[in-house]
Amino acid sequence: MTGPIVRRGAALGLGAVWWWAAVRLAVAPDAGALEGAVAAGGWGLSLLPVHCVAKSRAVGAVAAGRWGAAWRGKRGRGEAEEVVS
Predict the structure, then answer these.
(1) CA 9 – CA 17 distance, rounded (Å)
(2) Structure letter (DSSP) for residue 32
(3) How much is the pTM?
(4) CB neighbours of residue 40 within 10 Å
(5) From the CA atom positions of the chain, what is the Rg in Å?
(6) Is the per-residue pLDDT at 12 higher than 90?
């Protein structure tokens, strides 16, 4: 029960700190490196792919080595043989 509360509280607190830094950078003439670092760090964290799953569980994931085999010209399953006339 306390796990979700702590997570939400941490997310809310860190979000408030990020907004404080972003607004201070935009409005205050004396904003400095601390605000810039907090704002850049929060923006950088937003770029992380948080909805990732293991490749073995991903829907439509390409098997390991498939692209290399295709590049070398090896045939995979389900490909028709080339007819030579």
Answers:
(1) 12
(2) -
(3) 0.51
(4) 13
(5) 25
(6) yes
